Amino acid sequence: MIAAEDEMPVGKRRPGLMRSPQFSSLVILTVLLAVFAIADANFLSPLNISNMMAFLPELGIIALGMTLLLTAGEFDLSVGAVFGLAPVVVMLLVQNGGVDIGAALLAGLLLCIAIGAINGLIVTKIGISSFLVTLSMLLVVRGAALYITQGFPLKSWDQPGFFVTLLAGSFNVGSFRFYTSLWWFIGLSLLAIYVLRYAKLGNWISAIGSNRNAAVARGVPADAVKVWLFILTSVLAGLAGMISAFRISAASPVAGTGYELEVIAMVVVGGTALTGGRGTILGTIVGALMLRAIRNGIVLIGVPGLAYNIFVGLIILAMLILHALLQKNAARG
Amino acid sequence: MEVLRLQNLQKSFGSVRALKNASFALKEGEVVALLGDNGAGKSTLIKAISGVFPIDRGDIYVRGEKVSIRSTRDAMDLGIETIHQDTSLAPDLSIARNLFLGREPVKLKWLGVFAPLDFAKLRDAASALLKRVGISKKLDADALVSTLSGGERQSIAISRAMQFAAKVIILDEPTNNLGVEETHGVLRFVKEVRDAGHSVLLITHNIHHVFQVADRIIVMRRGEIVAEQTVADTDLLTVESIITGADMSALLKETRAK
C-alpha cells in the first residue's frame, strides 16, 4: 500500500505525507499500542490480539461504508440499529417462519437495501439533513427490532454450514485464532480504497462532498450516488450484524446500540472530514484499529470499567484537535 | 456564424414571470455582456440555457439547429459551458481531477463508474492545458484547488470550458470578490478565450468590465430584453440609464455639454 500511496494523484508532495491525517493517526496508533504493550504484557498476547481481531471487522466493515458516505457529505446514524435488526429478522424468519436460512439471509439483505434506499431518497429528494433523517430511522429500526422480538434475544443459527463458515468461520494461525470476518474486512477495505482513490466513482464521491453544485454542474448524478452510498452503508451494517450474530450464536434486538457514534469516531479519527470532500480509507482502518485497541487496552491496564468511556472520549477529542491543528498548519504552509 | 439563438423564451415560477419573451443571438467569437439589475431575469435566462431547469415556452437553436436542453449534461453535450463564481470547482480535489470532473479519462471503460481513472492521461492533459492557457508557470496539475486564489480558480474553470471546445461559455459574475490585479487577469483571459474562437456570454454587475471586454451589450429588465447595442455605439451612462430604467437623458446632456 505504501507504493500505491506514493503514486496517489493528489500526492506529489512527499513532505506533506508526513503531515497527512492518516500519517498522524498511524503515529498515534503506534504510540498507543506501545504504551499498552508496556503497561500490560498480555496486550500483545495471541489470545488478546485474536480477541481484538474478532471484534475489529464488525465495526470496521460499517466504517468503510460510513467513510464513503461522509466523504460524499452525508451521515448515517441508523447503522447501529440496522446492525441489530438484520440478524433478528433473519432469525425470526428461520425459527418462527420455517424459512430456509439462505432465503432468510436474502430477505435480510433486501431489508437493509430498503432502509438505505429510504434514508437516501428522503435526504436527496426531499432535502432533509441526513442527520435528522437517519436519527429518526435509528428509532424506527431499533423500535422494530424490539417490538418483533418483544425485547428478548434470539438464539442464533448455530448449526455449522455454508453461511456460518462464510460469515463467522474461524481458523488458527499458530496460536492466533482468526475469523473469516477478517477476510471480509480486508477484502472490502481493498475494494473501498480502490473505489475512493482510483475509480471514476471515487472522484465523483469526493467532488459531491467537496462542492455538490460543482459536481452536479459537471453532470455528476449526485443524488443517485448518495442514495447508493446510503444503501451500501446500510447493507454493510446488516452484514456486520449477521457476522456478529453468527459469531456469538445470538441475535439480540439491542445489539449495536451506540455503534453509529463509535463508527463515526473511527472514521473522523482516521482523518476523514466530517464536512465531506476529504475521505481516507487507510485512515479509517487505522481509526478502527485505534478505537479497538483503546477499548481493549484501557480495560487491560486496569482503568475501572465505568470510567472507560471518559478515556475513550478524551482520546478521540485529542485526535480531533490534532487533526484540526495539522489542517491549520497545512493551510498556512 | 450564429452559434446560439434564443427565440421567445418564457419561464414562470408560480405567478412570477421571470422570463417574458427573451430573444437574442450569439455569434461565433464574440463577447456579449448580459446586464441588468437584481431580479431582471439574467440568472433565470442563463439557468435555462445551461439546463438547470426547462423553459416553459420558446426555442433554442445551436448552430442553426433546434435543440432541447433538459439537463446540465444536455447543455454540456451541445457545447454550452457555464461557469459560476462559487459552484464551479471542488476545492478538495486536484486541478487535474477538477478539469475532468464528470468526463474522467478511464481505462477499462466497461467497468462503468468503477472504471479506474487513467492518471497518466489525466495529468498530461491537465499539464498541457495549463500550459496552453499560460498559467502553468505557477500551477501544478496535482495541486488542490483549495490552495488557489479566486482568480486562479476562475482561470481554471474557464480553461476547463475551453478544453471541451465549448461553443458558448457563460461566465456568471466571473470577477466577483476578486482583487484588482486578479480581475484584470480574468478579463484578459476572457479576451483570449474569444480570440481562440469561443463565444462568451458575460453576466456581470460591473459596467466598467463590460466596456473593457464585450463586443455587444444586452440589457434585461423585469424578465425582458430592453436593449441590445454594440459597445462601440454606446457609452457607460446610456447603458446605466437603460439598466435602471430611470430617465438619465437630462444628466446625459449635462455631462456631454461639459
TrEMBL record, chain A:
This is Inner-membrane translocator. The chain crosses the membrane at residues 23-43, 49-70, 77-95, 101-123, 130-148, 176-196, 227-251, 263-291, 298-326. GO terms for cellular component: plasma membrane. It is found in: Cell membrane. It is a multi-pass membrane protein. It comes from the Bacteria. Keywords: Cell membrane, Membrane, Transmembrane, Transmembrane helix. GO terms for molecular function: transmembrane transporter activity. The keyword Cell membrane applies.
TrEMBL record, chain B:
Residues 4-247 form the ABC transporter domain. Keywords: ATP-binding, Nucleotide-binding. It comes from the Bacteria. Coiled coil: none annotated. The keyword Membrane does not apply. One of its GO terms (molecular function) is ATP binding. The keyword S-adenosyl-L-methionine does not apply. This is ATP-binding cassette domain-containing protein. It comes from Mesorhizobium ciceri.
